[in-house]
Amino acid sequence: MMVLDGIAKRNFLVIGRVGMDLSPNPPGSRTKEATDMMVAMGGSSANIAAGLVKFGCKAALVTCVSDDAVGWYCEGQLDHYQVDRRYVRRVQGEERTSLAIYETRIQEHQSVIYRNNAADFQMTIADVEAVDYAQYGALITAGTVFAAEPSRSAAFRAFELARAAGIPIIFDVDYRPYSWPSAEVAEEVLSRAGALSDVIVGNDEEFGFMAGGIDKGIAKARELAQTSAQIVVYKKGPEGAVTITKDAEISTGIFKVDAVKPTGAGDSFMAGFLASLSEGHPMKDAVLRGSACASIVVSQPGCAPAMPNGDQLDAFLKSHPGPTTC
Question: Using one digit for the tens of pLDDT, what is the confidence trace for 137-163?
Answer without folding.
Answer: 999 999 999 999 999 999 999 999 999
